[in-house]
Amino acid sequence: MNCEQMHERLPDYLVDDLDESERTQAHLHLSACPRCRETADRFLEIWRKLEMLSAEEPGVALRARFDAMLEAYTQGLGEARTDALRQRFDRWIGGFWPRRPAYQVGLCSLFLLLGLAIGHIVKSRPSANGELAELRQEVHNMYQLVTLSLLQQQSASERIRGLSWSQRVSQPDPQVLSALLQVLDYDPNANVRLAAVDALQQFSDQSMVRQGLVQALTRQSSPLVQIALIDLLVQIQEKRSVDTFKRMIADENLNDAVKQRAERALKQLS
Fold first, then answer.
1. Is the Cβ–Cβ distance between 212 and 181 less than 8 Å?
2. Could you give the CA distance from residue 166 to residue 108 in angstroms, rounded to a whole number?
3. How confident is the model over 173-216, as pLDDT tens digits?
4. Pick from 3-12, 164-173, 243-252: least confident
5. CB-based burial of residue 164 (10 Å sphere; 0-12 exposed, 13-18 middle, 19+ buried)?
6. How many whole angstroms separate alpha carbon 118 and alpha carbon 111?
7. Rg of the Cα atoms in the chain
8. The domain 171-269 belongs to what CATH superfamily?
9. Boundaries of every domain in the chain
10. CA dihedral over 208, 210, 214, 219, signed as positive or negative
């Protein structure tokens, strides 16, 4: 069982609804894969926390904020979908959305898990292709929502977790890419910025990301982040970084290790 299959079967695994063979395969995969095991543990932790919450009635302002956030994901995706399934889904989310940011993230993750479970069920129904596409889009949107929510947290470890979540989004919206670049440019924690370099590598085929990586190099003060950016720019063969490398090499105050890496990068791209 690979990671993709594990993600597909995770809802059934967590509720103990797999047959003996699949349960054994899932258990073996989780034992060997730290990333999938972390995902499973995180969902279980979220469920435990949600069980301890008392019901809260959202106010008008909270509903307005949520509607604005949801609109950011659906903007530009075409004409608004008006079928009853989407309308019921939106109303259900709005009615139960918690006020506390930490639980907003948890509830997003729970919705994501529910979407995966429902998608797993409807896959066997030939007439449900439209519903499945709808649910897949909702899952995609929820991944992005969780990413953006985590990136706004005060804890550096939570922001790093948000960067990890971004790698689950195959085709992120410009808003998500912009948020990742903002983290790379301005996050006060060097470890978070370093993790942002790793996260952006997956999206380096996007023009705005490539340009953002070049611009970010001029703003960095951490040698580790500078070296990581230089290596990534060489890896993606971004020729627009050549002038930046030349300016870095001419900087007498630049860290020696960074200068050596920039010199080598300049030779590789020239």
1. yes
2. 14
3. 899 999 999 999 999 999 999 999 999 999 999 999 999 999 99
4. 3-12
5. middle
6. 10
7. 21
8. Leucine-rich Repeat Variant (1.25.10.10)
9. 3-32, 171-269
10. positive
